[in-house]
Amino acid sequence: MAVPSQETPAVRISTPAGRWILLTTVLGSSMAMLDSTVVNVALPRIGRDLDASLAALQWTVNAYMLTLAGLILLGGSLGDRFGRRKMFVLGVMWFASASLLCGLAPNAGVLIAARALQGIGGALLTPGSLALIQASFHPDDRAKAVGLWSGFGGIGGAVGPFLGGWLVDGPGWRWVFLLNIPLALVCVPVALRHVPESDAGSAVAGRDKEPAGGRPRRSFDVLGASLGAVALALVTYALIEARSGSVLVWVTAVAGVAAGVGFVHVERTRSDPMMPPDIFASRQFTAVNLVTLCVYAAFGGFFFLTALQLQVVAGYSPLQAGTALLPTTALMLLFSARSGELAQRIGPRIPLTVGPLLCAVAMLMMLRVGKDAVYVSDVLPALLVMGAGMVTLVAPLTATVLASVDTGRAGLASGINNAAARVGGLLAVAALPVLVGMGPEAYRSADAFDSAFRRAMPLCAGVLVVGAVLAFATVRRPAPDCRRPQCRTHGCVTTPPLEPQRVAAPGKLPS
């Protein structure tokens, strides 16, 4: 197969080569997206089989989010430097190997370590899959290819809870992770055979050339990424273990804050930082990321606790619990594009205010879900309102992020926003059980868990209200010529869509 150069990408979406590229990138990104949603449904069974505490279940979720959030920006830079296909394939293989370790884990400690390794693989393959599309397809086909990538990936995220429930009820929770191995066995050979290599400066990875347009090749900020990940890890540990009140917890918390200060210092002093501080000179960009932090913190806490509430308290099987959550993601898949079009007409301020308020109402409606809850009258109404709220806010959120910065930095802005959402979910899963007095064995007792759940939902709703007020006070209509999102269809409840970096035309800098 002829390999198109970075300067003149020639693959059309209607050709066999185009379909192969889409197949492998969708398969790869779906692996990471599935694991961000599927595991929650398996948590009670994992806890029972491995005799794990609630803290271990929190780490099972957070170890993955921690490394993914901390390294996703670095993952894109590594692809630019060493070759996007190379990093994508490495990410898929890494992810599959870590998934195998998860599936074979003999205890909670090994499972948590393997989940952290999964996150590293996800940080390589998620931005790599999108970068491959941008670098390989003809400019006239890029938007459509990104849209298909986003739509099919959204379907993968949407079916995650259902698939997870079916696997847990059937062959067992270990197959939630082992399922990634056959996907990787398809994805890697297809990528090596049919996907052209590309990096920032040439079609062949590793050549030390400048990118199109003559700009110097971006370096990668390993120190910044490491400090950011360490800060998140230490703060997360301190939050999860805060109920013990030990000296170690306080030392860890202080060390986490110190690592965070070090991260900010490195980013301010590096010539080419992973997260350039001057991007936050835009007040609207800063404000929208704070809204994102609030909104996705509430979502992270909600979906973590709801999957447990449906099983521990309401008596649902894993399959029933996974199926119960489908309406929310189905609504997002069906109507997210239309929501984006509406926001373009009326501006993002109203959707970003109304959306979080609808989600807050849904969380209060979840207080009806207790023992012997009836799905149609107790669970479904809340999830439909939740889906309506998420439909209302997610597409305008992404559009506002892209509109808040120069067009040439839209991909970076989207990456930061995506990381902010993951950090919000990470901190919520770590802090919420402590804040509502959920003990280490609470998930083994229906009464204890139900009591804590009823304290948690109003707290999550309150965080959403804060996000709505912040959006109403700060968000303004973007300029008419700003960049619009290419990922118009979205079905993931844990993060906003990741937008591609714009590829410059031959001999030109990105506008």
What can you see in these coordinates?
With 511 residues, the chain is mainly α. The protein has three domains: 193 residues, MFS general substrate transporter like domains (Growth Hormone, Chain: A, Up-down Bundle); 52 residues; 222 residues, Growth Hormone, Chain: A (Up-down Bundle), CATH 1.20.1250. Helix 3 packs antiparallel against helix 4 and helix 11 packs antiparallel against helix 17. The longest helix is centred in the first third of the chain and has 31 residues. It is globular.
Name given to the CATH homologous superfamily of the largest domain: MFS general substrate transporter like domains
Category from helices, strands and their pairing: mainly alpha
- The helical percent reads over 70%
Order of helices and strands: HHHHHHHHHHHHHHHHH
Alpha plus pi helix count: 17
The overall pLDDT average reads 85
- The coarse silhouette is globular
> Judging by the overall fold, what is the CATH architecture of the largest domain?
Up-down Bundle
Low-confidence stretches: 1-8, 200-217, 504-511
Number of strands: 0
What is the number of domains?
Answer: 3
**Beta-strand percentage range:** under 5%
What is the CATH third-level topology name of the largest domain?
Answer: Growth Hormone, Chain: A
CATH top-level class of the largest domain: Mainly Alpha
Head-to-tail CA distance between termini: 32 Å
Give the biggest sheet: none
The whole-angstrom Rg is: 22 Å
Main location: membrane
GO molecular function, one term: transmembrane transporter activity
Domain Major facilitator superfamily (MFS) profile: 21-479
Transmembrane segments: 20-43, 55-75, 87-106, 112-133, 145-167, 173-192, 222-240, 246-266, 287-307, 319-337, 349-367, 379-403, 415-436, 456-475
